[in-house]
Amino acid sequence: MASLSDMLGCTKRRARWLRAALTCAALMCAVQASAAELAPIKLAMIEGMSGPFANAGAAVERNLRFGVERVNAQGGAKLADGTHPLELVVLDGKGSSEASLVQLRAAIDEKIGFVMQGNSSAVAAALVAAIDKQNEREPEHRVVFLNYSADDPALTNDACSFWHFRFDAHAGMRMDALADALQRDRAVKKVYLLNQDYSFGHDVSREARRALQEKRPDIAIAGDEFHPIGRVKDFAPYIAKIRASAADAVITGNWGNDLTLLVKAAREQGLGAKFYTFYGNSLGAPAALGDAGVKRVIAVADWHPNAGGAASDAYYRAFRTRFPAASDDYLVLRMPLMIDMLATAMTRAGSADPLAVARALEGMKSDGAGFHPSTMRASDHQLIQPLYVMEMDKAGTAGVRFDNEGSGYGFRTLLSVPAAETAPPTTCKMMRPPR
């Protein structure tokens, strides 16, 4: 029979073992709780990753991924329950409203509360309408829509939504900047408007007519034509019409392959007209034009690599280091800055709840990495930021320190428009959810 001392010793050992087991269990629970707190916040990018504009979709992914990586390197979004990294989820909307709506449903089913899109105003309008309905029908699964490129002015005017935030200048804002440059270019007497046949292309045409009437009423419009989006393989017939019209300049909102093929046809036919563009500085256009584009291609953007300043240069070099392939070097500054503003809004809200984040975004000011100050205007959710009008030239010439996409050609600033001067009036009557 065991002695009393042996029995007491056994009891003490069992007690120590039990305390150790309980401590271990508590630690495991703490680790599990910590892992739950540190779960990534998913951001869904719905974009055309296949089809005729897949190159534009790939450029967007690089820029958003760069923004996500920078936020995560700085600690992620700091919420009330801990610090969370961001995670980019890429969904192929195939450039169509129907496919994009299917992907929106997939994102909602995954409980993703933040959706990003931009490379089509028609798709953006469809997503905004669907998100408005979703948020009213299922307030426990709300979604915020972050728009980085869909430039239809209606999205922050009559069709504005509390759940939609635009981080790009809309078509009217961009056209006003181009018209300011045209005021200085007195050699232009006649222009030809050529745009994609969908909502954005029609916006560009309408805004061009308005801006020219306000700022250069002496300019004649020699043609106003629309072409099928993403389906024209040879723009030679359009270039022939432009030549026959004797236009001094072409105004186009074309982007992606529709722009690259257009400027390629202009080069091959030796068209001497200037091109006033929204996106002539990107996605292969400078390389396609070559010497033919020197001092003849004008573009407008929220930023460009030769905008100047040490902070701007360092940011651009960081992007090129991350994506060293020359053809991948197209930095769209507003995209990573959008991610940064989103993470800041989450931190300020202390939550990833879409409603709380949307309220934190309203009126937010950003220093734009120290060189690009901007404000998310609360009245219509339109970002107010500087704009640059720039002229294509050979790399190494005055004002062109960096080339674009390894082409040997870059852009110099012709006109810098401060943020306050880009702010347009709005007709938005924002309907906000109750507090």
Task: Describe the fold and architecture.
- The protein folds into two domains: 41-169 and 330-385, Rossmann fold, CATH 3.40.50.2300; 172-301 and 386-421, Response regulator (Rossmann fold), CATH 3.40.50.
- Helices cover 42% and strands 20% of the residues.
- The protein has 13 helices and 17 strands.
- It has helices at residues 4-37, 54-73, 97-109, 121-137, 171-184, 199-215, 236-245, 257-268, 285-289, 310-322, 334-349, 354-361, 419-422; strands at 41-47, 77-79, 82-84, 86-92, 114-117, 144-147, 164-166, 190-196, 220-227, 249-252, 274-277, 297-301, 365-366, 374-377, 382-384, 387-394, 409-417.
- The strands form four sheets. It has a seven-stranded mixed beta sheet, sandwiched between helices. Strands 4-1-5-6-7 form a five-stranded parallel beta sheet, with helices on both faces.
- It is globular, with a radius of gyration of 26 Å.
- The relative contact order is 0.12.
Short note summarizing the structure:
This protein has 435 residues and is α/β, with parallel strands linked by helices. It is built from 13 helices and 17 strands.
